[in-house]
Amino acid sequence: MGIFDKKGTGSTGDVGRAAPQPSYIETKSGLDCDCYIAEGITVEGKITGNKSVGIDGNFKGELDISSKVVVGETGEIKGNITAEDVEISGKVVGNIIADNFMEAKPTGQIIGDIEASRLVIEDGAIFEGNITMSKKKKAKTEAASAITMGDVSEASEEETTY
Hints:
Elements (H helix, E strand, L loop, with lengths): L34 E3 L4 E8 L3 E3 L2 E8 L2 E4 L4 E3 L2 E8 L2 E3 L2 E9 L4 E3 L2 E8 L4 E3 L2 E3 L3 H10 L2 H9 L5
Parallel strand pairs: 1-3, 2-4, 3-5, 4-6, 4-7, 5-7, 6-8, 7-9, 8-10, 9-11, 10-12, 11-13
């Protein structure tokens, strides 16, 4: 009988057993996200990354996400949001830059400026601020780099009559 045997049966305990599978938390508001701040939780600071973020709690600071930010009905953000896509069902006091799509749901409240390529503000949503509709940042950068100084000189020489 080896020193790791259980009662001489030749068993080595849990060595052959599969590790338990991770369990995922179902969010209160059904948010589908990689990082989650639950209702009753307050976070202050800066969050950056390339995974989606869902907020049902309180966040004060800056979100710089290259994926999606979803603020659930109980979520509150005091700070600026920069993301690929933004969906607001809760309250945001701060500016929002959505490189692709921004949506304010009927329960959403936004106090601040919005810059987005595409924008939907559903009936019932509250919005106080300015809106700038723009192309994605990548498209802006490509267009800007395509203009040469020769193009600028030629454009300034042309006359425009109104």
